[in-house]
Amino acid sequence: MASVAGRVAVVTGGRRGLGAALVDELLARGARKVYSTARAAYADGRPEVVTAELEVRSAESVAALAEVAADAELVFNNAGVLLPSALLTGDVANAVETFDVNVFGPLRVARAFAPVLAANGGGALVNMHSVLSWLAGSGAYGASKAAAWSVTNSLRLELAPQRTHVVGVHAGFIDTDMVSAVERPKSTPAEVAARILDGLEAGATEVLADDVSATVKAALCGPVEHLTFSAAG
Asked: pTM of the entire structure?
């Protein structure tokens, strides 16, 4: 990938947290326009930012965004949800919603924007995963991120013929509202956003945004029982 300067980007879940940091970092690097989405309408006074409502669980909502953002060259699948509950004893509806948002949501976005990216030269698709993609113990959230990782790796192959660069991002805990109750060392959203764009501009296919992600990725060749997460650990 070349520089993001002069490019048009879409950031799902761009109103706050890592999404907002991605919008800021894209603008700092010279992006020409950024479509920033949220579930509800909101305003952003910067002329380069176009806000839009998006519900990633709705194919119709995603299709409407792809029609509006027909000039998109970079798509960041950042929107996600964390509904803590155990797989055996938690509410199954929470698990279903988690997969609908974290797995099928990015897939809907990828399917809707694939022809847009192709028409605009290929561009890039960046999907947010988690270090919990590789660690047991975080219920439906970790399972959904593992599935999203697999989806990204397959999309990379399917989108290669149209010259769309696909990047998967793994990160540990980021200092956002989503994990405010978790007492663990956390990276700032700005730090992670910068590392994501550094990787994108360098042509990486996978970004390990922090030391914990690099450490866990290296442990994947070891015993599976060592790949566990404990909130208290």
From this structure: 0.92
